[in-house]
Fold this protein.
Amino acid sequence: MSSQISPTSPTVPKIVVQATDLCKTFGTRGPTVTALDRVSVSFTAGQFAAIMGPSGSGKSTLLHCLAGLERPDSGSVVTAGAELTRMSADQLTMLRRDRLGFVFQSFNLIPTLTAAENITLSERIGGPRIDREWVDHLVSVLGLDQRLEYYPAEMSGGQQQRVAIARALAHRPIIVFADEPTGNLDSHTGGEVLDFLRLAVEHMGQTVIMVTHDPLAATHTHRVVFLYDGQVVDEAQNPTAQDILAHITARRMAV
């Protein structure tokens, strides 16, 4: 009798980011710094994942390589179905504009554009048309209804970061990359930002990959990948603060 998949069989999570043997060094004169040392890691759709590690561990470099913001020296990166190392600069630009979303520590809003104009930036620079009903929903959920005509300088840090999140989600990207998204925010506002990113994953079907050094920030995620000295050394599923701190302590004692 031929085998069949029953309706109750678990589905295999779709891999949306796959890095294989990534290497990246910096410095051409004198001693070089190895930021990534044969890193292999993957991330699945519908997951809020964090990359953690101490300063200099290579976590931001890894995120930038996964998002096509930097090129590795060697290795392979497949993001949103595209092999990034084979793409031209123009192709990478279009991929980032049309299929990826970004949230940065410094917000990176255009100061001469209003909140509404920043949110629809990808369309304004030639990307696909944005669904206005979807944007209205994002604006409502993020509490930005009364701030759409404000310029970045007229908003608080938390408001600016909510605008940045709305911008990252407006064109329904396959993946959102977040680099220390709460780094410039107080703990309460940062917690609200992280709660929304998790909401985007669990209720909007988004995929988020975040770099953070903050154990409390990482507890909002479904999975944490630990990076040390340019190498993936461990990971944790649905981590608590105690889990993360225990890992960090154990790692420090092992060094």
About this structure: The longest helix spans residues 187-204. The domain at 15-254 is CATH 3.40.50.300 (Rossmann fold). The chain has one domain: 15-254.
